Amino acid sequence: MTTTSTTPLVRSHNPADPGELVAEAPAVSPADVHRAAERARAAGRGWASAGASARCAALGAAADRLTASADAFADLIVREVGKPITEARGEVARAIAILRYNAQQVYDPVGSVHEPAAGPGLLLTRRRPYGLAGLVTPWNFPLAIPLWKAAPALATGNAVLLKPAPQALGCAQRLAELLDAVLPADLFAVLPGEAATGAAVVEAADVVSFTGSTAVGLDVVRAGTARGVPVQAEMGGCNAALVLPDADVRATAAQLIAAAFGYAGQKCTATRRIVVVGDADPLREALDAAARAMPVGDPADAATVCGPVVTEAARDRVRVAIDSATAAGGRVLTTGPAYDGAGWFATPTILEEVPAGHATLREEIFGPVAVLQRASDLDHAIALARDVPHGLVASVHTRDLDAALAVVDRIDTGLVKVNAPTTGVDFHLPFGGTKASSHGPREQGRAAADFYTATRTVSLLPANPTGGA
User: Fold this and answer.
1) Is 56 a catalytic site residue?
2) Active-site pick, 80, 87, 203, 234
3) pTM for this one?
4) Residue 14: what pLDDT?
5) Average pLDDT taken over every residue of the chain
6) Which of 122, 178, 199, 370 is deepest in the core (most CB within 10 A)?
7) Which of 87, 268, 352, 364 does the annotation list as catalytic?
8) What's the CATH architecture for 9-235+437-458?
9) Please, which pLDDT band fits residue 309 given cuts at 50, 70 and 90?
10) 238 is catalytic
11) Phi, psi at residue 150, to the nearest 5°?
């Protein structure tokens, strides 16, 4: 990469101790992105033809190396993005499982065989890699999200360019070091930068996967589809939890508080709205007790559930959202414990009586804020849950199987949880939403292998169908 004295630097800081610089690197220019793309494509040709066993061995070796350095990666996640250490360890464990899953998936069938409509021969379908995958990833899962995109892309024979979020630069650099030790040179490249770098990655790639904000995601979709390349974009949610009258109030409240405020609400699957059917008072009391008991503080402390938000600007957005809701007539139902630390901490807050149409009921506030809504019956609850531009995930909490199935059938989200928190996904199953939450095919599981490959239909006929001389 070419650098000069005027090349801007990408930096990440510790959200719990903003004075600590965690990582820095020169921003990669668009011209350097395209040079990296040329090198990656050249490396990718050999990688695609190396065979399944070579790709399986490399991804398995990466899993082994990550296992050996799991504690160091977890500590870096805590320092760089403020994720509580218990969740950070869980993310590393998930990343290892993603690598091992994709290492074995290389042996899955890549097509099928069919009879010709007439005469001898074979008709085949075969999936082949596109060539170069361009990945643009967020900071909140700085190891798992890059790997749940990169691992299937690599497993199916593609080269990879990764443009990480600046706030997660250090984790991306460490991931590159880990993969460089087991992959061919230039096959996987981390390209730090801001918007111009990301745009260049989208411009250079043959297949694009993005996770981030709706506004940026739509730009990525437009840029990729204008070039005719496959694009998938995961763009967040304003997720509802529906609580029916027969739900276990205490257990449900504990799940809701963890889903709304764990990791300071910085998950696209976090619970943003709590829709309670019928008498809300028992749940209100249980939510208040659970919120007040939730451990807030230093993310390096194993007891912490809610740490800082990622930047000062993120903390300010949370405060503005709460102030706007209360100015519009809403009120604070409860807050979690305040934490007077040096970092960017936002007090976890549940709002209620927020007027319909307010931004806190329709937009993703990427922080520890949730809104309680009241519904007269199940139909009303489903209507409230659906009344948002997004459709990522919803949960329903009830002992009534008929009611649960009604929600599963009528809700317009990509994921539905019954008696489970909105947070948490299974890496071996498809992940994605509807409406403004997602564009394109699903991520993870078998769906990911399909996304990073194109289907070819092959007609294989005998040179002499009559069998004569």
Assistant:
1) no
2) 234
3) 0.94
4) 98
5) 95
6) 370
7) 268
8) 3-Layer(aba) Sandwich (3.40)
9) very high
10) no
11) -70, -40
